Queue: 4 jobs
Job 1
Amino acid sequence: MAKAQLTAGMTIDGFRLDERLHRGGMADIWRASRNDIDFPIVLKVPLLDFEGDISLIVGFEVEQMIMAELKGPHVPRWVANGDFAVQPYIVMEQIAGPTLAKSLGRTWPLDEIVETGAQVAAALSDLHQQDVLHLDLKPGNILFRLSGAAVLIDFGLSRHRHLPDLLDEQFHRPMGTTEYMAPEQLLRVRSDQRSDIYALGAILYQLATGRLPFGIPARMRQVRRRVWRDPVPPRALRPEIPAALQEIILRCLEPMPAARYAGAGDLMFDLRHQDLVVLTERAERMQQSDFRTVFARRLRAGKIMRQIHASATKPPPRAPIILVAVSLRPEIEEVRQALLEAAASVLANMPGARLACINVMPASLIAIDENIDAAGDNVHVQRLVELRNWAAPLELPKGKITYHLLESRNIAAAVVNFARSNKVDHLIIGAPTSTGSFAGKVRGKVSAQITAEAPCTVTVVRAAGESNRLREVEPAA
Amino acid sequence: MLIALLADVHGNREALTACLADAERAGADRYVFLGDLVGYGADPAWVIDLAAEMVAAGAVAVLGNHDAAVLNPSETMNAVASAVIAWTRTRLNEAQRSFLARLPLTVEEGARLFVHASASAPDTWIYVMSSREAFQSFRATHHRLTFCGHTHFPALFNESPRTLPQHHVPADGRPIPLLGQRRWLAVLGAVGQPRDKNPAACYGLFDDVDNRLTYVRVPYDVELAARKIRKAGLPEFLATRLTMGI
């Protein structure tokens, strides 16, 4: 194992070390360059003290293994790994800092908290879809691209569902950052994506209130306390926090994994559509549980921990989002009926799914009236009523169905954007039965564009034609 | 170089054909037979002829316990297996027997060791089913990568400085990086008689440039292979288990 001092100007495997950017407790970060790479890169070198903690070595192996598998905008682009026999390192895209940890010292406006939380949730959702759990999510591991997209870093404690978990069997103690750690991580459960949701809840709490939900436990054992001691409700610390945001944060921080959001996509959806959040007792809470409740919980802590373990090792039910785009033009009643049947059959096949009904209104509709506000409002209300009316036969409980009005000149783009930014799983749209008419062709183009550009499965529904009463449904990948 | 790793073909022509076609599509440029070309299946002669042809063209093959049993009746086996071995003997010609007789127990190739069962005692056919056997196998060799078969259960072990090797059940079709600083023991599933409740043939693809191993599952005409076993008068159980993957 090489122990040579690295200095600026040195070259490792063709990578020139330009400048040391950061000296951490576990690794150095060097700004580096190589002629054939046209984006800024950094080289991360572990500080491996072999008398010291072996988990640092294994953690770096894990990071090498997992970073090489990850793709997309929410992780730094991976370039190369260095062999341990010569010089271990990871070369990756440089994401201009600073990390979220650097901006904790101020009071965050509410809309900024929500936007930041939604961006991090989007990044988490993307990570989970790549079968990777972060398991050490904290402000210091979150960066942002200029576009606003969150980038997650530091995968030394992460877990890839389909690769050997090098950390699992080696270490018989929990790992993570105590401030943000979910209780099941204390039990060494490394397979539940809801552990990352918990950490994001702690981060949201911190952004919203300026303090950590459970303080800074000095020792791993003290993490157990959060099982019986609920945090001070955010609204008690900052009254202008909306009930829905408190509901979201406290739901993330539920000790029982099954009581949290099942996936980061759901969390993002609620952050972006707070008016649709189903409020529970959590939203109204203004103080911590009283002494008796906490004491009773504490006495049952062992049992609760066992329940947490059982909940965390049971995969969460999938909660997919089905999006149905409903056109409210009166002349296509038959298409709407077909849409309703299609939505019902997709829902029947996806237990736990949530249905999002959207209607896109051309921006011009509102601009017709000089009095934009009043007229616009009326149109809104009228359309929402019609949407609800359309969905009524599905008899979905509150929380399983949401209604959204979008305003755009470009119907297809609005639908596709909504599907993408809300991580929709399945999109159902209507299309005119081909009659050769000009209007039909125009509307057919909308469904064609959506089908071509949608980020998910699309079902195109048509009303049965005069000659052919069969409903045509064409699924597309 | 992309190496196709084929263990436990067991005279299953349909499964081998399907795996080879899949490997060719994937761009494999080297083929390794990890033992047990014969036993259980209805096409031992055909499988040996193909393997011999491929070995003549540069492929690697090691000896398995069923191959050894064909040559040497004193090898101990269960009743069903020895019944099939007795039948297999009647199906092979001199050239095919002599091909089996020339197979080595192990083949070393740089950092790689190819062996049918545990490297700790290749001729005693120890099943590497758990971390304990993997530990013994690691101890017996200095090779960074050991590829074996014999158990019919796909598994991947990595050596760990502190504990017994870690047992990982690989997911189908997902490349796994075999990190350079660790030693790995890959137990390929069976081409010709999978037993992990998935009847699809299992073989491995190892890319020695980016150091990744993929466990590939290939569906094949199981019904045909089962029919041939029945037609040959071999025990019914061997046909049934193929269709169920047990």
Job 2
Amino acid sequence: MPQRRFDSNETSLNAVGGTPSKAATEAGVRQLIASGDHKTALERAKELHKASSTIASEALLVDAYAERIRSLLRRNLTLEAQSLIDLVRQRYPTARTRLDELTARVVAKPRSLDDLVRPLNDPGLVAAQRAAIERVLQQDVWDLAALAGCEALPADHSLRKGAAALERAFVAATNGPVAEDALSLPEVSHRSPLAPWKLLTRAIASFYRGEDESCRRYLDGIEPQSAPQRVVPTIKAMLTGEAAAPPTPAAGALRARITRASTLRSALEALDQAFASASKGRILKAIRAVLDQCQQVSPGQLESLRQHISVRCAVADLDPAKVVVAMGGPSRHDATFLRLFARGMEESQDPEHVVVACRLWEDFRHAAVQEGWFAANGREAAALSLHIADLLRRLPEELLRELQQRAYSQAKASGEKMSYLFPEEMYQRACALDPHPESFSQWMDWAARRPGEAERVAAAWHKIRPRDIEPVLRLMKEAEARGAFGSALGYLAKVEQIDGLHSSARGTRLRLLAGSALRRLQQKKPVLAAENLAEMSALPEAQQGDRPAFLAALRFVVSAVCGHSEEAAAARADVERLLGSAAAAMLVFAVATTSKQRAIAHLGSVGDLSRTERASLPAALARVTALAAEMHLMLEVPGSWMIEVAKQFPASRQTLDAAQLRSLAESAVRAGVGDLAYAVSSAGLERGGATEVRFLLLRAQAVTGQFERRVVCAKAAAVLASQQQDAELAEEAGELVRGLFAFDHVSLTFDQARAVLQTEKAAGEPPSKRRPGPTYDDLVGGSCQCASCRRKRGEAVDPFDDLDDDDFVEDEDFGFESPPDMPPKMAEMFAEEIAKAIRRGESVEEFMARLLPGGLPRRSTRRRKKRRLR
Amino acid sequence: MDPIEVLGISRNATDEEIRAAYLLKVREYPPDRAPEQFEKVRDAYEILRDPRRRLRHRLFSVDPGAPLASLFADEARPRRFVGPGPWLEVLKGK
């Protein structure tokens, strides 16, 4: 192509810019075009462009070509027009857009296949025209039969012969399997315009043979502009299984017909729908249809399908006899079936189904071992035993007990031992087969809810895995709880050996020695208590905080019991020096009370305290409460002292730190002094920071008479504690509202919980009749079922509804019995006090420990002992 | 979804194979570009990397409530012969 030169006057070539000769030539060309002599015009334009080769001359030439093409189209010489368009498009790419309109006209022009191919009979047909015809054949012809029968070409023409061969191959490949060898198609050369059809036919045959890679290879070889290319995306989509929308409706229809679900698949879907409809007749009918289809199409899967159907029918509670009839016999009851059945049963919420699931898992274990799935003593068997134990925990206690009793009787009669009904046996088996901490931990978790069991499990765990710290900690805790401080100290030594830095080991020795000393004082063994005291004094942690004061108080009691009055006096002086007289009095009283030596210390009247001592009472109580909590002391503060603490608190609220405020508030909550608890919680909330959520919970505990507020504060505290990842506090908050079913629906978002916190911070004054404080109707909502809320909503309220659940608390069984010698009136008062304690958030144990040193005999304990004896 | 399918491993894959498959999938679905897919891959690996969890998954992961057609999921999708007609409809370009 000649190099084009830029002519600065090209835009006005016709006017003044061109040379006279050029301008004259151009004008001549335009004139020829206008007169309709397009052929001559084109010749002149070609000469002009050859001579000047400018953009303007090219534009003129393209104009001449365009007019020539139009004239051809007017004479229905579509093929020639198309050829010329292709030629101009190829030579002058910049004119492509100008040719689009002409191309559209060519496409719109009706023409027959005969017209298209007839010029091919002309031996003098120029190559360009032949190529153009072949291009049209390749791009447009889709009807091979028509081309094969085209009479414009002789019968032995290569195109007709090729089309006929291709048509036969295409029909064969789309009707049934065709081998690759049968598609060599020598009639169609790779240069033929029909060559893409050869590739397509081979691709279709490969597709049906499942030779996807080969199919892809053929598809990739198909000329992109050819007619066969139109079906390539559809075949590729079927190869990948992708669910993209088909490009045309015809493509969608083709794909749908080829990949249409089989009759079996349809039958399976129908059966699934029948199960969903729960129509038993429909299910049984669908079972017959699906098994019939499976027998024909996929007999290898028949047994598996029958097993699935059996299980689905069992879960749907269908009559097994009818199912067997519908299936033409029972399914095979092997390990596969038993596992499937067990899974089906355990998904149910019905406890009876869960029991069946346990039995089935046990049967599966046996069957699987027999069938060689795993060894009888392997980890799989252990995992199954743990799984059964876990399922048994879902059963109501009473039902399980009843089943176990029946199992005992049956075992006596038939000898069949139904171990799968006994969680303990399952855990034991699991831990024996797979003594992994995870197994033991699950067993321990189960045992923790059964008094005494946890210690036994921990002992078993410790025996098998002596280096695990968890069972030793549990053994230590259990020993401490039953007052076996010697054993507890022994376990502590083991904990320290395993992990000296474990958080549970820190400070424990001091507490255990203190417990031991107090216990020995209770047993009137002051000399041994003194030994503990000496040991405690040697501990570095005994010198921290207020602990020296505790040691001095203990020394005072030990010395007093031993009759060493001088030493006792010195110790007492030490306590007073370390804590101040008010706190000292309370601490000494607490130590003496806990060691059952009340005779040697009494608290006296609060009126005897000096003004300064009274002013220091809040701080003193906070310090002693903290010590008592740490050393498990019984701290009983008389009501008059608590009133004085409440009186003095406003003046000292700024001097107490957050920890002291917390101790003080907890002490007030325990003593049932709501106003003091409220005031202290206000002071704590004012401080803000990380401890404010703790004080929100204390606020909940302080507002004993306002249930809605108590619930909202506790739930807000739970939400905020969870957000702070303080699981312990969240658990405490949840515990406070557990069992208040009327408020179960109350659920707070984080933002709502923050808003509650802000509201409570602003509510500094304790609630009174005139100013009851914040209400949370919007959070509790209209669905609260308490009598007051129902009345507010205008709902009918039964007179008995006015009685709160707690009004019936005296009728409830708290798991204790009053002593037989207790007068009835006193027993009634006792029950009332317990009810109040529970409303305050105190547990029965805490209440008993506070009220009656040593507590009352627990009924459950007695029963347990009886059981053991049996 | 079955973690074995997510990682594309065999049921008897070794620890090394599981880890290799996980790393491959993470490269395929990096968390910044395909967070949802990455989460699936990570969850699947969490189940399979621990032999005890893997064992539990192997024992208890059967689903009796799954659609019955899923029993035949391993079978190839049907490819029905439909004759030249529907093919030609597409080739016509309509």
Job 3
Amino acid sequence: MSRKLPALNSDNQPFWQGGEQQTLLIHHCADCEQYFHPPAAICPRCNSAQVSPRAVSGHGHIVSFTINYQPWADDLEVPYVIAIIELDEQVGLRLVSNIVGCAPESVAINQRVVVHFVQFEDVWIPQFEVVS
Amino acid sequence: MSADYIGEKNVAISGIGQSEVGRPSQQSAMQLTADACFKALADAGLTKDDIDGVACWPGDNNNGDAFSPIGPNALISTLGLKVNWFGAGYEAPGPLAGIINGAMAIATGLCKHVLVFRTITESSRRQTDKTASALNNKTIGRDSSFFWQWYTPFNVRSAINLAAMYAQRHFHEYGTTEEQLAQIALTCRKNAELNPNAVFRTPLSMEQYLSSRMISSPLRLFDCDVHCDNSIAIILSRKDIAQDLRNPPICIDGIGSALKQPWSWDQIDLTGMAAIDAAEMMWRRSDYKPKDIGNAQLYDGFSIFALIWLEALGLCPRGESGAFVDGGSRISRQGELPINTNGGQLSGGRTHGLGYIVEACEQLWGRSGERQLPAHNVAVAAAGGGPLASSLLLVKE
């Protein structure tokens, strides 16, 4: 199915293209030594400009999820799972993504997940699969 | 009360007006708007020449789409108003922001009477395009929005997907059940049965709720508000002037508009939203307490938001909203805390914000007809979900 894709810029490009090298790149502040998401040119905690994308393990767990059943568009294959993932690197380091590769009804909060990438044009969308 | 200067206490609601609630309406967006404005002026006992300010949320966003087809520019020009101040814009603390901005204009002395309004024509729009309000249609081509680009590539197509994840988390953390969540929809429907302006007025049973289509688990069709065409106008007046007008002034005793978390749907407290920031601020600015509330009008764009507002406002303890609404008696018109007494947006219609103010005022003024509650003087109205949140404590003097 087609995707709405992001317009790339210098702040978000590492996140959306890191998947070309199979790495999930999350912005990290060298001054307060914390990750943050979404990426930006300034650390939202300490406002340092010493920020840069850093490869993370791609492992995490499901904080919440929903199974979308509504066919919002003709080319949308339903059902599919949207989830909020917390990455292992830092408590509260969260992003919205999808859970793929399993029956939607089998997804549950706290399941362990690992990143996989799916490419559309010049964007590598990070999705997650449940680790058994 | 710890805040030093609480300027909103100098501001009162002096009149309200609402157009028909159409699904869809045959009237144009401006006809609906003018109808609401003239009704509100007549209700306050004012004329258009008294109005020296205009506020709206979100305004027409330079595109006038069905989410908000009329902004202050159009209204001022069409009605021939002469104003000292006007303002609108989406980037504000949610659907009550027009009231809050208008109150600030009065508290600073810029204006004596501010016309606040909100028009929506999503029902008409959906006659030709069911996907008109989808998030992926907010931007054309690649998503350059600072916020939506973190959702739309993952096929987050509607705010329901985000609200559903709050509900799922609430169920997980607190043991809230789908039968408990259902009580928001069932309570709204019961109230709408007595509201001649409501969209859905036929009885709704638990069985019908539980067998309704799942849209984005655990939220079902009946957890979603119903699109309509409508306009609402609220007249804010300086309190000392309002005391000489037609209606007993309904004073703004406290505004809650704080945002102390990122403007994000996933980087905030998933079971508290921005509602916890707004509510905490509102109570800090008032001597009233949750036990004083006679009617509560809580945002129900999706049902889960009403549960979260119940907790955020301290109307029940954090995590206990499911148990609080269980069985529906506490939040019914006969209960200790009647909510959404006009049917809310779930059954009354998605007026998107100001409908809560209209009903809070009608109840305080004793004009709610068959659904009128016993006389009371204090109400709370709260609107918004996710990072959008604001609340108002309203007191009839």
Job 4
Amino acid sequence: MLRRLVFAGQLLFTLLVAAFLIVPAALSMLAGVTVNYFRGIRSGVTLEWMVQVWELYADTIFRSFEVAFATLVLTLIVGVPAAYALHVRGGRLSRLIEEIITLPLAVPGLAIALALLLTYGGFGAFRGSWLFIVAGHVVFTLPFMVRAVMAVFAAIDVKILDESAASLGASPWRRFRDVIAPNAKPGILAGSLMVVTLSLGEFNLTWMLHTPLTKTLPVGLADSYASMRLEIASAYTLIFFIMIIPLLVAMQMLGREKRSAA
Amino acid sequence: MSLAARFRLRASNATGSGAAFARLCLLPLAIVVAAFFVLPMVRLVGVGAGGPKGLAAYAAILIEPRYRATLINTVVLAAVTTIASLLIATIAGLFLQRNRFPGHAFLVAMLTFPLAFPGVVVGFMVILLAGRQGLIGDVSLRLTGSKLVFAYSLGGLFLGYLYFSIPRVILTIMAAVEKLDPRLEEAARSLGAGPWAVHRDVILPALVPAFVASGAIAFATAMGAFGTAFTLATNVDVLPMLIYTEFTLAADLAMAAALSVGLGLVAWAILALARSFAGATVAAAG
Amino acid sequence: MSAGVAVRLEACAKTFSDGTRALEPVTLEIARGETLVFLGPSGCGKTTTLRIIAGLEAPDAGGRVRFDGEDVTNIPIERRNVGMVFQSYALFPNMNVAENIGYGLKIRGVGRTERSARIQELVALTGIAGLERRKIDQLSGGQRQRVALARAVAPRPRVLLLDEPLTALDASLRERLRGELDRLLRSLGITAVYVTHDQAEAMVLGDRIVVMRHGAIAQIGTPREIYFEPVSRFVAEFVGAANIVEGTASDGAVALPGGRIPVQLGVAGKITLMLRPETIAVVVPDAAELHGRVETVTFVGDRQRIVIAGAAARPLLVDAPNTIAAAPGERVGLRIDPTRIRMLPEKNTE
């Protein structure tokens, strides 16, 4: 009897917490398609707000994807080989390098943005382009890619694979191409999802780095929260949710797959 | 031995050509990190000390009453958020890991999705919940006749911070609960310990590393959170907002830089402390 | 020291929620103070049975567990007053040795002085004096095992349950601790249920042995009964090396490729014989009715293992004194004492 009560109590608590997290999100999604928020859902459902958001902010949506994609490509090129090198070499230097690339996670985005502005603010062309934002995003998401790939390397003991391929005569490049990279796929996938999700939702850095010509979606969101009516801000938020939730679902499924395979 | 020489010596652990290849693999990383992180950060420290106040700017955060008040606000808010998140996440996390029922996976997903929401969106949702036209305001108006609006106060800020902290903490806690050795609990039960004693003597002590790890991340994140405070535009000053206003409104580069470095140091110190305590690497959640 | 209770299992079976049938209905009695050993390969159901007695698993509907006649089936482990030693010891890392040992007493509300005294008693009994303040991770495998034992025994449980407690140790340590465990169990006089896959452990520690296979009991008996009178081929081969010989008996003997083996008079028809390696003697060919050719000779130290081909359908394993000179290829005679031949019951030749 007591056990049943405890179970019910814990379930209720957990449901309340879940409600706390979900209800506002659902509310905002609903507001994005409601004719008039103050009158509630009774006033009707419409896509008019979404259309308006598209007219106002379509460029931010495209730019967010651009930036996320560029960030992904860069983190792949930079991060995957680096993860390999760090894992295979090990030792104190590797750990030091890992520490350094993980620092951006401890330092607030604001500080990193400020630092970037101070250093590259003078390079007009670079500073004004969307690549400047990509640079910030890469610094911030790199540790996630590197760590995800290194985790897979550790789990499958890639050193042994590397050594046996070497014993069969393969050069380092061949080993990387034929043995290392293919086996790192799950880590690359997990890292990629992480990088894209983080980039799409990044605000702290981007707000400081952006110019009126290089706005991303979260920056646009902040604009709309300050200056637009509630329904438009909600519709805009809804679009953001639509972009990001499939990625989150994919990450969840990937995580569950990994756990059931282990 | 110079750093380069030591680098070469370490690299020779691998086979001859392998060492060169490894170095090649690290080159892009070295360039990107040096150019876009190390160099700017060094520059930041320099600028922070280069203003009219000089190095004293770094001490200003502790000395000047306005800055100090902001610092205390931020630290207290972050601390309270961390403790509350840990409590909530432990209760919910233990429950979810130990019980399976239809809808379990869905519930877990619901609790961890908000991980990716940026601070601005969280701020917006707090407004929807507790703002002037918020849900809570409506409900309280209907129930008690007076509208409860707290989105723009410390309460609203706390709510927002809680919102993005819980998913992070709960993931780490759940992972740790999964790794608990059931044999320890069985041993305690075989010695006569009831459920409460088992929690007190076996489960919670075993979760302490997870508490420290996730608590440190939650604290560091809350300290550096900007988007939520920005959207809520509260009267309550937190450090990131102060940095922002110093930079944009007061154009006091040096102060902004000094405060940023200070904030960064505090956050890094907390994480390093937690890591040395817990031993294992503190993985950023999510 | 109480001698513990008599344990009775009535028709206890176990099917897990994923459909695995871990245990077929088992009924058995354990006498007060007896040490019963469950022996068998992994997956045979021995650990499941132990956990049912402990109260960590509930038997399927209809199964009952009784301690001295009292039905404890529905009593959870924390109120069953059993002592349990796990394979991995499960010592609490947040407590030192003394605190671990005293935990069961603390739960029962025993006062500090009395608890201290009892802890000291057990520390002396298990031979870990001086380690009381140590943290768990500073102990060796053998020390951990002793702490686990002390902790389980401290609250004076009615039954002591041990789940492969020596498996995690290396061979020489295992042998030494086996002897100590045997002495300890005898001095405590407690009812003990011991699970192992190691046949030597079972022989040394068990008053009776339950050999299990595929979730069912293959045979229950004293170590001697199990060894000398196995009821099936499986049991015969599990508790020691066994030569299984099949043939047809007539005129008081079984004809084999290499000669004949004498059997009891009156036995006729198809039979299966089990011969332990130590019951076959290697002699000069003329002195025996059975002959074969030496295939391999392995010098083990205190004896030699000789494999003889051609005597029976399959090679015979023979344990010979280490002084006999036998070379591979040599033709030898095999003398078998007919009183030490075991006939396996017809229906149980599997």
